[in-house]
């Protein structure tokens, strides 16, 4: 297999990069991650499930196999009494991702996440985050990562620390840094989001952008503003949920029938459909966003929509829908099949 073209080279040449994220949410949905703490011990307990999801996302069109080390840092594993497994978890996850990436000719990314313990303007808290990131970056280098993803930062200061650590200990690896946009258009340490992205770019991030928090509809306005001030590649990885101006984040969404809050366990009723994802991918492409994917709530068929909008034909495209061949919804439905369709659709009372 020929050498895999690097991330920097792809972005420099104006190419699009599809990155599948959302491992935590999808593995929770499948029964292998505990909602609430959301730690990735599935890497150790059921490694084949992680490998299978890597392959599934590649099949759907991802250019990147991201090591599942989100929340795989010391502070989180201490909560579940598995701090002693920290290094093994990270190295095993990186090896699984490396093996799948090599098998299919894809990029492999190491991963950093918000620490959940960071406190703005607290030097002690910053040092804890710095050490956690340093460990994971050094393991990513050892595991052969092609580049680093540092994601879902609600504090600008923590994102800066992650970038600094990648630049210092990452052996020259490219860095993709993404912030999470909550309801206000600013970070939780009160930096306007668009300004924060511009500053991260100026500090040397290879690609900056937004992930998680908002769905396509409410993330896109921020991306349009970011495009005006950021000179380099932008990243967009929304959650595939139908957020709106009243409820800008998926954490804020309510049930359209009961009015009850849906986050975190009952969001299925406000999931984006395939057309929503296709529209997002078209708008992102037209805005010149080179690096895109989906975050919490991602699924393979949604990822395939992005790939096909970008003109790709991943292996999963062999199974793209062809409704024309449906016996009740096809192009020439007649006879009893027409009656069946009318009963299904409620046309007959």
From TrEMBL:
Residues that coordinate or bind Zn(2+): 212, 295-296
Domain of life (superkingdom): Eukaryota
GO biological process, any: methylation
Cofactor stoichiometry and binding remark: Binds 1 zinc ion per subunit.
Gene3D superfamilies given in the database record: Homocysteine-binding-like domain
Cofactor: Zn(2+)
Molecular function GO terms recorded: methyltransferase activity; zinc ion binding
All residue ranges annotated as the Hcy-binding domain in the record: 5-310
Protein's pathway: Amino-acid biosynthesis; L-methionine biosynthesis via de novo pathway
InterPro entries: BHMT-like, HCY_dom, HCY_dom_sf
Keywords carried by this UniProt record: Metal-binding, Methyltransferase, Transferase, Zinc
Segments forming a coiled coil: none
PANTHER family: SLR1189 PROTEIN (PTHR11103)
Descriptive protein name: Hcy-binding domain-containing protein
Organism for this UniProt entry: Elysia chlorotica (Eastern emerald elysia)
Taxonomic lineage of the native organism: Eukaryota, Metazoa, Spiralia, Lophotrochozoa, Mollusca
């Amino acid at each position: 297999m020929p050498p895999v073209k690097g991330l920097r080279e792809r972005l420099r040449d104006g190419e699009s990069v599809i990155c599948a994220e959302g491992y935590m949410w999808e593995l929770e949905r499948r029964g292998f991650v505990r909602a609430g703490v959301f730690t990735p011990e599935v890497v150790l307990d059921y490694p084949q499930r992680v490998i299978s999801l890597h392959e599934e996302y590649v099949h759907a069109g991802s250019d990147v196999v991201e090591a599942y080390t989100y929340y795989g840092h010391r502070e989180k594993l201490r909560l579940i009494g598995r701090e002693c497994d920290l290094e093994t978890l990270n190295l095993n996850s990186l090896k699984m991702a490396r093996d799948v990436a090599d098998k299919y000719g894809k990029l492999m990314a190491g991963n950093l996440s918000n620490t959940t313990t960071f406190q703005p303007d607290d030097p002690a808290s910053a040092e804890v985050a710095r050490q956690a990131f340093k460990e994971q970056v050094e393991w990513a280098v050892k595991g052969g990562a092609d580049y680093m993803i540092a994601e879902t930062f609600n504090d600008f200061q923590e994102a800066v620390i992650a970038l600094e650590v990648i630049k210092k200990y990452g052996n020259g690896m490219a860095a993709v840094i993404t912030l999470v946009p909550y309801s206000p258009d600013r970070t939780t340490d009160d930096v306007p989001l668009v300004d924060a992205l511009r500053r991260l770019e100026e500090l040397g991030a290879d690609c900056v952008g937004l992930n998680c928090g908002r769905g396509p509809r409410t993330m896109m306005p921020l991306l349009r503003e970011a495009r005006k001030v950021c000179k380099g590649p932008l990243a967009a990885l929304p959650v595939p949920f139908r957020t709106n101006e009243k409820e800008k984040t998926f954490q804020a969404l309510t049930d359209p029938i009961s009015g009850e809050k849906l986050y975190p366990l009952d969001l299925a009723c406000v999931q984006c459909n395939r057309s929503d994802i296709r529209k997002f991918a078209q708008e992102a492409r037209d805005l010149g966003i080179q690096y895109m994917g989906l975050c919490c709530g991602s699924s393979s068929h949604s990822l395939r929509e992005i790939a096909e909008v970008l003109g790709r034909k991943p292996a999963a495209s062999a199974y793209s829908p062809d409704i024309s061949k449906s016996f009740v919804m096809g192009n020439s439905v007649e006879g009893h099949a027409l009656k069946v369709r009318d009963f299904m659709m409620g046309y007959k009372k």
